[in-house]
Design goal:
alpha+beta, 157 residues
């Protein structure tokens, strides 16, 4: 699938919240939550859009010093397994490297096998676990796996 990446449209967080909800119906972030996250130091993000302009997915991250963290990464269910998440992550690796980060970190629900497979295929390794981190309305809380991937910072001369 062909798609483009654009900076997260901070002036239209309502549309970003709608996209986030479509990606995560059990735990959507509203525009107020997004505004709070995006006000944090080092917070940034990208939105993936089809050539027609339709949003397909998003990634919100925070780059601070040697660490970059994926705060949320979601792709619309109908657009999954088409390289969108991989493209969003690759873009983050480049941006994080340019900012001097040495690693990218994230947390993923232990029951999200597709996301876990993606992250492992992109060089992430499991660093730890957070017990009962994700709360679910439809069942028990789910553990989160903490993952990280080393990236080589760009050397300045």
């Amino acid at each position: 699938m062909t798609f483009l990446l654009h900076p997260l449209p901070r002036a239209n967080l309502g549309a970003v919240a709608t996209l986030h909800e479509a990606c995560f119906p059990e735990d959507p972030w509203d525009s107020a939550a997004l505004a709070t996250v995006l006000c944090m130091p080092g917070a940034d993000g990208r939105i993936a859009v089809a050539e027609s302009g339709e949003p397909l997915g998003l990634l919100i991250d925070q780059c601070l010093g040697e660490d970059a963290e994926v705060l949320t990464l979601g792709v619309l269910p109908v657009s999954r397994r088409q390289g969108i998440a991989r493209g969003l992550l690759s873009d983050l690796f480049s941006r994080a490297q340019a900012s001097g980060a040495a690693r990218v970190m994230l947390e993923v629900a232990a029951d999200n096998e597709a996301a876990h497979a993606l992250y492992l295929s992109m060089g992430f390794v499991r660093d730890g676990i957070r017990r009962a981190y994700y709360r679910r309305d439809s069942g028990p809380s789910i553990d989160a796996w903490r993952l990280s991937r080393a990236i080589a910072p760009i050397q300045s001369f």
